[in-house]
Design a protein that fits this description.
This protein is mainly alpha-helical. It has one domain (10-209). It contains five helices and three strands; from the N terminus they run αααααβββ. Strands 1-2-3 form a three-stranded antiparallel beta sheet. β2 and β3 (208-209) form a beta hairpin. The longest helix has 41 residues, at 152-192. The radius of gyration is 23 Å and the shape is elongated.
Length: 212
């Protein structure tokens, strides 16, 4: 019965190293194991290549789609950006859209990387960015329905576009980060002489099996 693939500490299969180098090797090996488990890689190196291609391909499609969306519906959306500037820093709609796009992209990236690396600060920053994005997204709706500064239809139009933009950049960032993690795993395996045995039987280092 096969077990989940794991990557053992590199220190047990190499010449003695300093404590600092050994700790770094252990950290990198542990990260490689978590990435392997996250994507359920069981069918060898070719599966890693296929996943990298798939994630990067979809990420590229989303990038092109977001650029087109921005050009058509943000910069050319027939919206007087001088109307109803944001309560935060008096940003106009164009600047708000840039902030939502940038914060959505970074927040998703920080969250995904923090999940694998177990770091606290990126998750805190990601959460704070999400709150700012939510505020900016629904602020035009509040202006449209509860003040006279913006028509209701304009408020709905702005909020709708910001929601689409935020969803798009979040999804795009997720695919790009996953492609990066898989590429890192491929590079790690190649540089450390790790072979992923077919059918999920094991991951070996320098031809020495790790999983019995």
């Amino acid at each position: 019965m096969s077990q989940e693939p794991t990557v053992e500490s590199l220190g047990s299969h190499s010449e003695p190293r300093s404590a600092l180098r050994g700790a770094e090797d252990e950290r990198r090996a542990d990260l490689a194991t978590r990435i392997t488990h996250r994507f359920g890689i069981k069918n060898g190196q070719q599966e890693i290549f296929d996943l990298i291609n798939k994630k990067a391909y979809i990420g590229g499609i989303l990038i092109a789609g977001l650029i087109l969306f921005w050009w058509v519906l943000i910069t050319e959306g027939n919206d007087n950006i001088a109307l109803a500037p944001s309560f935060l820093f008096a940003l106009n709609f164009s600047h708000v859209a840039i902030t939502v796009g940038a914060f959505g992209l970074l927040s998703s990236a920080f969250k995904s990387l923090s999940r694998e690396k177990g770091q606290l600060l990126p998750s805190l920053i990601s959460g704070a960015m999400i709150i700012v994005c939510v505020f900016f997204i629904f602020e035009p709706l509040v202006y449209g329905f509860f003040t006279n500064e913006l028509a209701q239809s304009t408020g709905l139009w702005r909020t709708g576009r910001l929601m689409i933009l935020f969803s798009g950049v979040t999804l795009c960032s997720t695919f790009l980060v996953e492609a990066y993690l898989l590429f890192w795993l491929k590079t790690f395996c190649e540089s450390e002489g790790i072979n992923i045995i077919e059918h999920g039987e094991a991951i070996s280092i320098n031809d020495s099996p790790v999983v019995e």
